[in-house]
């Protein structure tokens, strides 16, 4: 019987969550089949939250200058892309196509970090509140408003523009600066296959799976979700009534 075991788990200095899992024993050839399927599923099919739009002091474009701000707007946008969000399970299940807003309004001199954002309570939170955003060197005021969406994979600004054009409920404001959104919570997945011997001396395969997440989901939970996605993909095909009827008819004709 195949067993799934977590052999190592830790959080590194960048707050990335690492997990190493062992699946064995597998028949020869099954390791690469299972490893490749899990890797593709974990990297492309798990959903996450990311910033898709930013409004900064009602600026019209990202090349504008804010007095008293040490960084330019492009640097601020790059820092905002580093924010990691974790949504509540209830919100993710019922409002996967919705959009949340967060904002901060501060007066300098001050160092602005991610933890200063005000977000809807009980729906979403920031995993890395110490993430640096910018620095205000004088008594200027800074107003930042962000749009947070749930999705899979990544979305370029051009795709976001087209999406907003087709939306009736969430039109783009003229002052919104769109940014590329990276929704996927899994940063990296690697797998290795080793040959082992079972208790009877037969040659089997052992699959070592390494998962690195951004902290919004644990490697163990991500692996569970990946396995669930694959099960939901294959199981309905197995129970397809048309397929079962056709298979039964073929079997009858074969044994006539």
From TrEMBL:
Example GO molecular function term? DNA-directed RNA polymerase activity
Decide whether keyword Membrane is in the record.
no
Pfam families xrefs: RNA_pol_A_bac, RNA_pol_L
CDD domains of this UniProt entry? RNAP_alpha_NTD
Q: Which UniProt keywords apply?
A: DNA-directed RNA polymerase, Plastid, Transcription
The source's superkingdom equals Eukaryota
Entry keyword Transcription: yes
In this chain the DNA-directed RNA polymerase RpoA/D/Rpb3-type domain maps to: 18-240
A single Gene Ontology CC annotation of this entry is: DNA-directed RNA polymerase complex
GO BP of this protein = DNA-templated transcription
Q: What name has this protein been given in UniProt? A: DNA-directed RNA polymerase subunit alpha
- Show the taxonomic lineage: Eukaryota, Sar, Stramenopiles, Ochrophyta, Chrysophyceae
